[in-house]
Amino acid sequence: MYLIDRLLGLFSTDIGIDLGTANTLVCVRGKGIVLMEPSFVAVKKGTTKVLKNGNAVGQVAKDMAGKAPANIEVIRPMKNGVIANFDITEKMLRYFINRVQNHRWLYRPRLVIAVPHGITDVEKRAVYASADRAGARKVYLIDEPKAAAIGAGMPVTEPMGNMVVDIGGGTTEVAVISLGGIVTSQSLRIAGDKMDEAIIQHMKRTYNMDIGYPTAEQIKIKIGSAFPLEQELQMEAKGRDFITGLPRREVISSEEIREALREPVNVIIEAIRLTLEQTPPELAADIFDRGMVLTGGGALLRSIDKAISRETGLQVSIADDPISCVARGTGVVLDDLSRMSGVLESSDTEY
Q1: CATH fold of 158-190+267-322, please?
Q2: 2-36+86-147+325-346 — its CATH code?
Q3: Higher pLDDT, 348 or 279
């Protein structure tokens, strides 16, 4: 079986996938990251028929969000890091696999898929089933914090404490890793999406103005922060007045958005504290010496490293290109599946 698998591997494309709530990144063995698209799918309302001849997936679908007519539904099939819509997730996976497989689709690929550490067995089975129906020959799962740490270049297989905080769109994963295993961890369903929700609620309470998630995300990116800035920022936000129902605009500041983000940021910091409290003393000493690494899109929130460092007293660094760390980690695993098998979980079936 091993020899057959190796021979098939010569003719197929082994693929690593960061199947995220906000974005899906695809890594191909030997090529690195070849695709990064928003995790959005546009369908005809009431059906699972993907629009534009099956191509309304990713950025094409995201561009329709909040702007589509009543007969079109824009779906985010992943919620809080797990599958919320099985059929649409399968179609999204198949679309991305087809894009990177090209003419090699005759030979079904092996997939390494990153999933939150805290997901249930039922949620894991949904990932296996979706990947199988999307065309996988063999499916491996890897915990997101492990993949993030590997992608950030941390020595996770060594006997030392490696602390990683992966702040994605739907989940935040906090973990201490040693000898290839997760020693202690916290998995929160509070991350970038909750930050966007906090901004939406702030605009409602403060300005009686309704904004959509795309606008909230842009506010977070342009002026969001977790710690006072040397030079505070401003921007113009546009939305709909709750009272008149008419379009309007407001000039908002980074100070008020920082206050709006305080609750989700504090929940993340509290999870980091709890993880540190549960860490064995020898590993805690390593973390004190080496600090922790932030990965995921949430690591790009301005000065979040300073906010965490102030509350924990530890050195906090942001990984290079933090959004791609999980996908890069799956790529490292793909390059040597036999050596890295200890960090993986797989289904019993090869198709």
Answers
A1: Nucleotidyltransferase; domain 5 (3.30.420)
A2: 3.30.420.40
A3: 279
Residue 173 has pLDDT above 90, yes or no: yes
**Domain ranges within the chain, ordered by starting residue:** 2-36+86-147+325-346, 40-75, 158-190+267-322, 192-262
Count Cα atoms within 13 angstroms, Cβ side, for 346.
Answer: 19
11: closest CA among 110, 114, 96, 155?
A: 110
- Pick 192-262's CATH classification: 3.90.330.10, 3.30.1050.10, 3.30.43.10, 3.90.640.10: 3.90.640.10
Residue identified by tokens 């997760």 is 182
pLDDT per residue over 221-240, tens digit each?
A: 999 999 999 999 999 999 99
Q: What is the pLDDT of residues 312-349, one digit of tens each?
A: 999 999 999 999 999 999 999 988 877 776 778 776 54
DSSP secondary structure, 230-256, as one string: SS--EEEEEEEETTT--EEEEEEEHHH
Helices (H), 31-70: 51-54, 59-62
Do the bridges between strand 345-346 and strand 138-143 make them parallel or antiparallel, or are there none, so unpaired? antiparallel
